[in-house]
Amino acid sequence: MSTATFTASDGTAFTNRSEYRKYEFQLSYTFTGKENQHNLVKLPGSVDCQPFDIANLKNCTAVVMDATDQVQIDEVEGSKIFLGATGESVFVRNCKDTVFYVACKQLRTRECNNCTFYLYCISEPIIEMSTGVKFGCFNGGYPEQALHMEQAGLDPRVNKWSMIFDFNDEAKTGKNWTVLPAAEYKDSPWFPAGAECERAVPLLEGGVAAAQAYKLVPPEEGSGLTFSFNTSQDAAEEAFAQVEAETEAANPPPAPEASAPEVAPTGGPPAAPPAPAAAVPPAPPAPTEEDPLKDAFKVGTKVEARYGKGPTWYLAVVRAVRNQPQLGPKYDLDYLDGSKEDNVLAKFVQLPAKRTVGWNPDRAKASVEKNASAGSPAKTALGSDPECGVRLRKLMEEEDAAAATVAATPEAAATAEAPAAEEDWKAAVGELEAAAGGPVLTAEAPGEWAGKEAKHVPSVSVSENKKECTVTMGHGMDADHFIQYIWAKNQAGEVIAGIKLSPGEGTKAELKFSIPEGTTTVSAYEACNLHGVWSSSAISL
Fold it and tell me: In what order do the strands lie in the sheet with 459-462?
């Protein structure tokens, strides 16, 4: 039997699938471990709405001129970073002395020092445990940026770049950050493709950008127009006046009705009143032809759809849109695994939802590419809600109901026991591990996540009497990065305990359980929402 060969996108061949996957991920979707390099560039079409990682750069220039999904940036120093269109969050952690040009849905920084952000952001930027951070409006671009922003669901007109929220400044003093006036940087744009091009993002002062965002996306009733701490009273009043003036210009008051002129009295008898004019029925309003596709997704938009009207949502890109009278738009879709589907009803298409399990699209993509290179059909399309998500959601609801029942009894236990529906848990865990796209990660074999073992490998401790077990994690439980599940298996690979976790302050990534009779070894597992499924080594009892 011939040995299978896996070929990376740069032509490098591998006989080991795990090595191929690690190499391909590092090659296509990361800039990591570089120093004094200024040619780190991803051209349009090379990332194609996939997640991207940037880490451990020093004195480098890194450019991504493509639409991306979530981006993580860690441990960058003295560098310059360009992200053209990120449809999800950009997380920047432990960076210093670095300049960022970023267009994204959400920006969050943590433990950053002396960094400057020239920013487009559709939501309020958030900083945490960061100091000396400077903000300016996004300044520059590249020819395809407008298209990529549309694909990423970013409206260039709504830019809240100056509306900073600082988690570590309850008094709102603005001590940790500064808004730069446009005059300081407007003459220094960055056009990474070379020649200057038409800008996708208008260069606006903070107050004007906030006012425009307020006008296009008004806040809920009871809230007002928000400005940054550094916006002067005059600038705020000018911006608000501009909003009011534009609103009045768009909606002028109706002209007052004209009254008959008064006639001076004469010496003769009063004139007879004029005969009433014949009633003229008002003219019917001119028919308006409303665009039946005005609310439809545009061609090129990243969506997810229920392929074949099935229960699972799969990631796709809109190829064509057409109107179907009385039923709304229909879509022709290109799925990320290469499948195509035409005339899909609107009710089966939506914007991508947040993933409910720690499923890695890059791994799934590698699996699809492997099947394609072997001439085999793809086992599954790439989607944000694989089949195991359906089962897991059902189990989560059952667990919540069972937990509520137990909590209402005096004998409510403080520890997490094995779920009642053990067979369902076995199946769910099996599907969760399968969704990782390959072997479960360990300290010895961390795959593409080498360097993250300390926070992701579970730690197992057993009581002296061998009856109680505790599984702990050195992992945080932030809203954007947390442990979703912890479970344990015995020597036969059977699930003997498990717990579902939710992010939040004060939440501990921990599982406690009583060890069932007959157990001779315990292995612990966890599922991270970003970094897949990991396991500990087996602990002998």
Answer: 459-462, 468-472, 510-514
Window from 315-319, 406-410, 437-441 with minimum mean pLDDT: 406-410
Residue-wise pLDDT for 274-331, tens only, equals 544 444 445 544 444 455 566 788 888 888 888 877 767 788 889 888 876 555 788 8
Question: Any idea which of 374-383, 490-499, 519-528 has the lowest mean pLDDT?
Answer: 374-383
**Strand 61-68, strand 80-93: pairing:** parallel
Sign, CA dihedral 104-106-108-113, equals positive
Contact of 47 with 336, CB cutoff 8 Å:
no
User: pLDDT digits over 514-525, tens only?
Assistant: 999 999 999 999
Joined tokens for residue 258: 């004209």
Helices 422-435 + 387-407 axis angle, to 10: 140
Q: Which of these, 161, 245, 145, 154, lies nearest to 205 by C-alpha position?
A: 161
Beta strand segments in 290-415, E: 302-306, 313-324, 328-335, 340-345, 349-350
User: d(Cα 75, Cα 54) in Å, to the nearest integer?
Assistant: 9
Task: Write out the H or E segment, with its range, that includes residue 462.
Answer: strand 459-462
Residues 6+ apart with CB under 8 A from 35: 57, 58, 59, 60
Phi, psi of 474 (to 5 degrees): -90, 30
Task: Please provide residue 325's backbone torsions phi and psi, each rounded to the nearest 5 degrees.
Answer: -50, 140
Rounded distance between C-alpha atoms, residue 436 and residue 21, angstroms: 12
